[in-house]
Amino acid sequence: MTIVEAKKITKIYKHGKVEVRAIDDINFKIDRGDFAVIAGPSGSGKTTILNIIGAMDSVTQGKIIINQQDISVLNKDERADFRRDKIGFIFQSYNLIPVLTVYENIEFALDLCKKHSPLEKKDKIHRLLRELGIFQLKDRRPPELSGGQQQRVAIARALIKDPILVLADEPTANLDTQTGKEVLDLMVKINLEKKTTFIFSSHDIMIIEKARRVIKLRDGKIEGEEYDSKDGF
Ligand SMILES: Nc1ncnc2c1ncn2[C@@H]1O[C@H](COP(=O)(O)OP(=O)(O)OP(=O)(O)O)[C@@H](O)[C@H]1O
Question: What is the ipTM of this complex?
Answer without folding.
Answer: 0.95
